[in-house]
Design goal:
This protein is mainly beta and 368 residues long. The protein has three helices and 26 strands. The strands form six sheets. Strands 1, 2, 3, 4, 6, 8, 11 and 13 form an eight-stranded mixed beta sheet that branches.
Length: 368
């Protein structure tokens, strides 16, 4: 990117710089000199939000909003946003999907399409900066976990197979994220919101990743985390106050850090793992104390210690099986580091409280 002479002059004036100042420091400024900088991500004046470093002219021409300075004060941090509605599209990296604070959100479905901004596109990440909808069904005697009222549906390239389109979600989603696979051609994807009780306030950040990006998630991973240690949750976990969503089938992946060869998983608290309605004798749903195995609702760790279980359900997360009363630690001995979540059929809630899902810590183990 190249700043115009006028933009440079304006920046110098704003800094109260004069030609005499430059002469004094032996740096005489020439009108033929130019300042160059890339369109990189920059922090805006809005806490926790980001934009793209551009000139003022480029920002206004592209339909963005100036939100702070960048490039040593010569550029503006340009923020882009779209409102969910008819023909709404995202055509720039680092764009926020949000409702217009001055208008009521429609009580029907609205969609936003993701344009293919480069031919080398592989993935899109959606960060739910702020997103709370009506939660799933959670009454005794009902098929608990269904997003029957509100819903958020993200669609990728269905031809890419498992993980291309994340599961349908609802409830408390703030702070969580999703990756979708875009495929090499065609429309990159879309997100559809269904709201039944307007107005709603929401904000979703859209980040594009090219196929050669080091930040790209492994194919098929809906959640992706980096770092030697951290925490991940099921959707609508809401600090253990939510309800486990039905029809979930997604992979949570963790990048192997340099110098680490194994990884351990454990509950974040004594009550942070709850798949309490599972299949028992006669294909009926019974409490965990009477259950025989995990069929419809479970967490699976494909590379768990061969001497222990790799499928986990019930009320505690323990490597010795699903009928333990004390949480334990599960170790994954080989890569890829991956946890699969399944809740493939709505269960009839037989007692309260219903299943809440999980919150799990991970800690990578150094190579010996």
């Amino acid at each position: 990117m190249i700043l115009s002479i006028a933009a440079i002059a304006q920046g110098l004036k704003g800094k109260k710089a004069t030609e005499r100042d430059y002469k004094r420091n032996g740096r005489l400024f020439s009108l033929f000199n130019i300042v160059q900088f890339q369109q990189s991500t920059c922090p805006t004046i809005n806490a926790g939000m980001f934009g793209t470093c551009m000139t003022n002219h480029e920002c206004s021409s592209a339909g963005g909003v100036s939100s702070g300075h960048c490039a040593a004060g010569f550029g503006t941090c340009c923020m882009f946003s779209v409102n969910c509605g008819t023909a709404a599209t995202v055509s720039r990296n680092c764009t926020y999907i949000q409702n217009d604070p001055g208008a009521a959100t429609p009580s029907t479905m609205c969609t936003v399409t993701f344009n293919r901004i480069t031919q080398n596109l592989c993935q899109i990440r959606l960060d739910f900066v702020m997103l709370v909808t009506v939660g799933p069904i959670a009454a005794i005697g009902t098929t608990v976990g269904q997003c029957a009222a509100d819903s958020v549906t993200v669609t990728g390239d269905v031809g890419m197979g498992a993980g291309a389109s994340p599961p349908v979600v609802c409830g408390s989603l703030s702070g969580q994220h999703m990756y979708l696979e875009t495929g090499p051609t065609g429309t990159a994807g879309m997100i559809a919101f269904k709201f039944t009780t307007p107005p709603k306030s929401y904000k979703v950040k859209v980040t594009y990743y090219t196929c050669d990006s080091p930040s790209k998630a492994p194919p098929g991973c809906v959640q992706y985390f980096t770092g030697a240690a951290g925490t991940f949750t099921s959707y609508n976990w809401n600090m253990g106050k939510g309800v486990m969503l039905d029809m979930q089938n997604f992979a949570t992946c963790i990048r192997q850090e340099q110098g680490f060869c194994k990884i351990s998983y454990s509950q974040t608290s004594p009550t942070s793992f709850s798949f309490v309605t599972i299949q028992g004798p006669g294909n009926t749903f019974v409490p965990v104390s009477s259950a025989t195995n995990c069929i419809f609702d479970f967490v699976m760790i494909p590379n768990a210690d061969p001497g222990n279980d790799d499928t986990f359900c019930g009320g505690v997360f323990n490597p010795q099986g699903n009928f333990q009363t004390v949480p334990g630690t599960v170790v994954e001995y080989t890569t890829p580091f991956q946890v699969d979540t399944y809740s493939l059929q709505a269960n009839v809630l037989i007692s309260a409280p219903g299943p809440t899902g999980y919150s799990l810590n991970y800690a990578q183990i150094p190579c010996s």
